[in-house]
Amino acid sequence: MKTLLQVCGKHQDYKMEYTVFLDIIGTIAFSLSGYILAAKARYDILGILVVSFITAFGGGVVRDLLTNRVPFIFHETYPISIVLLTIIIAYLLKLHKHTRLTDNIVFHVSDSIGLSMFAFTGAVVGLDADFNLAGIIFLSFLTAVGGGIIRDMMMNKVPFVLTNDFYGTIAILLGFLIWFIDSFFILNTAISVFLLVFGTAMRLLAIKYQWKLPKLI
């Protein structure tokens, strides 16, 4: 079973055994959020499946297409299996009926890890494709929040990343830090772990203290 980082050509130094675990946690978190939103909007089973899959994989698929890669969900079976299993378990536990699920610390921790993981992965793909700083930051942002943006637009909502939470900013910051550190050829496993922990901690602090970017009006 290959992870996203294991298919990153010349940046294979970033391969880490725990990336499978982080992939799974991130996929569970994002597919779960898609399931809850779709269920609360009273979508049918097909609508729930579409929203869950788009939330979990939308950003990664667009990223892979931009970098001339075959989207990983088309040649790996475990991501799709994870989403289906998550939806089944969420339904059996009736998580869509828990109105305060977003206050659950487990949900927030897994979602924060997923954000950091996918932002990191997007940046590494950008490095492997020899993208410049703008391209790396864009791929980091797209991978982390692209699925949520597509989901919100499909559901006729303003993408939450544009109006609420200190969310996309963390993906942009991680993309910049990865580019900056890699320019000194010191992006190793220890630093990668630090960046993942840093991104996760920043997201959790943003939730706790309700950090938001300033608005003009």
Order of helices and strands: HHHHHHHH
Query: What portion of residues is helical?
Result: 55-70%
Radius of gyration: 17 Å
Tertiary shape = globular
Could you describe the largest sheet, including whether it forms a barrel? none
Beta strands, count: 0
Global structural class: mainly alpha
Number of helices, counting only DSSP H or I runs of 4 residues or more: 8
Low-confidence stretches: 1-9, 13-18
Nearest-integer average pLDDT? 83
Distance between the termini: 49 Å
Number of domains: 1
Fold blueprint:
Blueprint: H1 19-40, H2 45-66, H3 78-92, H4 105-128, H5 133-154, H6 160-163, H7 168-182, H8 189-209
Write a structural description.
The chain has 217 residues and is mostly helical. The chain has one domain (17-208). It contains 8 helices and no strands. It has helices at residues 19-40, 45-66, 78-92, 105-128, 133-154, 160-163, 168-182, 189-209. Helix 4 packs across helix 7 (168-182). The longest helix has 24 residues, at 105-128. The radius of gyration is 17 Å and the shape is globular. Residues 1-9 and 13-18 have low confidence and may be disordered.
